[in-house]
Amino acid sequence: MSYMSPRDVVGVRAAGSISLSPGSCMEALSESSGSSATAAAGGSVTVSDFLQTKRSLSFSSEQVSCMCEALQQSGDVDRLARFLWYLPPSELLRGQETVLRARALVAFHRNAFHELYAILESQSFDSRHHLQLQQLWFKAHYLEAEKIRGRSLGAVDKYRLRKKYPLPKTIWDGEETVYCFKEKSRNALKDCYLKNRYPTPDEKRELARRTGLTLTQVSNWFKNRRQRDRTPQQHRSVVTCNSCLVNSKLVVKLHCQLMHPINHL
């Protein structure tokens, strides 16, 4: 069985033992774009030519992981799908996380949502990739619902779907997310709010950095929280003051009409 490393695939000759990384694969993929291929011995081939060859080449797990990671980072889902198609079934079923994430991404773009759900529930994934996989999980359920209902979903529709289809433990650390904010983030916002209901811009920026939220999200949270915390008595006082203002204007108008009736005929 002939052998070819990822660097051979992208037009770079393999020389001895090479330590691969997604970054090096990405660089090699970029350099090989648009280059011509030669099939002669010792020559180089492009990714496109390689993906069209027979399934007679073998890869190490490190090389498969490198290629999957590089193609995911490049956003080239079509090429990623072709690369996965090239791999033997034994490699696809090995349970390597990078391959599973690649398969999940391809399944999502093919609208193969049940396959996507099965992959995401098959094993626990590294927490570094939870957010990306969670987005695939929810977006897939949104798209399924939109297809069935024949319309776009509103915020309430999406909220109900998230409740109906909670995240599997394989892509979720178990920390409750409320109003799209992690519990730790909400606690940090609450602690700051108890100390100062009107934080300065610098304090908001620091809070955004600590919580991982945007400055707009932090500002809106404080604004909404202040509105919710207004007591009924404060609300009634505002209404009463407004009523008094309106009544005072009416009294003044009536007084003017009585004092100068001709001017108002």
TrEMBL record:
User: Per UniProt, which keywords does this protein have?
Assistant: Developmental protein, DNA-binding, Homeobox, Nucleus, Transcription, Transcription regulation
PROSITE patterns recorded: HOMEOBOX_1 (PS00027), HOMEOBOX_2 (PS50071)
> What is the protein named?
Homeobox domain-containing protein
Q: Could you tell me one molecular function GO term of this UniProt entry? A: RNA polymerase II cis-regulatory region sequence-specific DNA binding
Q: Which residues form the Homeobox domain?
A: 181-232
**Gene3D superfamilies assigned:** Homeodomain-like
DNA-binding region listed in the record:
183-233
Q: Where in the cell is it found?
A: Cytoplasm; Nucleus
One Pfam family assigned to this protein is Homeodomain
**What superkingdom does the record give?**
Eukaryota
Using the UniProt record, give the first listed, main subcellular location. Answer: cytoplasm
Q: Which organism is it from?
A: Macrosiphum euphorbiae
Q: Name one GO cellular component term.
A: cytoplasm
The family database entries (PANTHER family) matched by this protein are listed as:
HOMEOBOX PROTEIN SIX, SIX HOMEOBOX 4
